[in-house]
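Whether sequence alone determines local backbone shape is best considered at the level of individual chains. In the encoding step, the backbone of a single protein was reduced to a row of integers, each denoting a local shape. For completeness, the protein is quoted in full, as a sequence line and a line of structure tokens.
***
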Amino acid sequence: MRLFLRAVFAVLVLGISVPSLAKGVSETDLREHIAVLASDEFEGRKPGTEGEAKTVKYIAEQWAKAGLKPAAGDGSWFEPVPLIQRGRGEATYSFNAKGRKLRIVSDEIVLIGKEAEYAKKDLPVVFTGIGVKSDGSVGADVSGKLALVLFEADNAPAKMKSPRARREALIAAGAEGVIFVGDSQGNWPILRRQLLSRPIGLESREKRAKLEGAISTEFAVALVTAAGRDWDKLRAHAKGADYTGEALGIDADFNVMTDIYRFNSSNVIGKLSGKKKGSGAVLYMGHWDHLGICAPDDATDKICNGAVDNASGIAVLTEVAQRLAKKRHDRDIYFIATTAEESGLLGAYAYADKPVFPLEDIVISLNVDTIAIAGRNSKVAIIGRGTTSLDATVEAVARKTGRAIESSTDANDFIQRQDGWALAQKGVPALMVGGSFADLDLMQKFLGSDYHGPNDELTDQTELGGAAEDADLHIALGNYFADTRKYKVTKAGE
């Protein structure tokens, strides 16, 4: 039954009551789960590894113990998510200008094809600056050509700052190849490492050029200089807001072999069945994956354990499930632990494209991610504020649990970086609620230090006070939104 997701505000604020939590979630409760999920034994929980097998098994066992029932499409806990990895294989290349082969002394280039083999001769090379103009459109003529793109894009419009967004815009404009130029003294090592780490993709949604890759600034300078051009002048031109790019008078020949590996990862899905069929569902979600073994072989610590990101979120979901399972609610309550969030919300997108229950039945989706940041008594922020009709309701529930509200929209800076975004684009009322993103200075401190590195480990200093309070808040939200008397929705047309 399709539900029109419009709150009946007669029951808002003054009509909200939240039952007291007889036993709140403790820091110890959360620590026990994080200690397992972020242990070296789980090897950083990268999809397609032994770490994944241990992770999804642990989650299913804990959710079964909590009282959930398996709810994947085949009746198990595990919903398959077909993924693909591409790794660098053998590659030969040459660049030519005015009939002569250019001599490039740098070898700082990484090339990866869309298919297992890519061969092309006389591919024209176009320098595109950051790739897009101030309105987000592609100014350069890249159709059937190789686009050289600056990796850093401080002057790009907000929605196009990410390399992925600019790459996809160039592909949509017809680019046959897209190669990013990384700063040799800054982001080139990061860019190179990303490409060599066999990045994971969701093949059903991939937007890839036939050839993709990266070169260092040193390589770019050598290339354009050998062709008689001035790199500094090209960079200066690229700073213009509406730079339209320019052909370099260079053609390229490529023969690129790519190692391709296809495999199934898993979203873990559990359910608490409600009493009233057709009344909708509450959905909790959080990603289980992290980066796996992420440092060089000679590093002292090679594992990105992901204690905060996002073993903490899975720990909260597990404790919330355990407490919500103590009674039967009106609405169904689903829990989904998604795969491959770190690779671009892939598990969430896979679920949004092929849900096990109708997306239109979801009265609220609550994503839990990177939750062990803030201490106790932190304000509650809403990622997704202003995008649904639920802000006032969520705030009223939060206040009933003793929490203050962060009323700004600053946390929306992260709206596209979390799994709820995949559902929001399908019209689902999807929010992230809690304290971690209420203090963005505190969040940025984490993002600039332990985030996505071997130091994101569980220690005695890991802050779990705010996470415990956020867990209690999510229990209160579940109790409220799963109750058809407290939160009412109307059918379309009523």
